[in-house]
Amino acid sequence: HIGSIIGSANSGTGWPENTRNVNINGIIIVSESITRLDTNAFSSLHNLTGVVLPSSLKTIENNAFYGVQNMHLNSILIKDGNTSFKTVNGILYNANMTTLIKYPVTKTATSFAVPSSVKIIDSSAFAANSYIRNVTLPTGITDIRNSAFDVSGLQRINLPNTLKTIGAYAFCNCPNITSITFIPTFKLISF
What we know:
By secondary structure, this protein is mainly β. 0% of the residues lie in helices and 35% in strands. The chain is built from no helices and 18 strands. The strands form 4 sheets. A 7-stranded mixed sheet has the order 8-9-10-12-14-16-18, with no helix packed on it. The chain has a 4-stranded parallel sheet with strand order 1-3-5-7, with no helix packed on it. The termini are far apart. The model is unreliable at 1-13 (pLDDT under 50).
């Protein structure tokens, strides 16, 4: 089942934060009129398995993909012509791949090596992915933002000495963690 999504009635350019309790049962294609995804844009879309984002999209607010109701999300795609974002194997990045925005919650790989170009793991990037066990971060990572691995299956992670900031709740609700290895060079740690 594929649904097409139309923009916010208020501005015509944003996917609204207040879209709630919609049963999708498949993939949604976000309308080309949309230029912004608001915070919690997909948080209460039930049975969402995939998202196709438009070439017009310029901004994705923090936590646009956050929410326990979208537990079926396994792929994010970007239409050709988008100059702000990029997907590789269903994983969403900014266009120059310096920020990993969202690793889908039902991506079943147990290990993932973050590309060497990535400097920032965005808020809730790996949140709610119960399959992921080991994430390899490249030297050069500077920020792990709020709730980045919240409620994930993470067991092991090595934090490189280039890391400067770990946001609030970055590793919260990760009962399987057995090892976090790091050299303490952080400016801010907020667990």
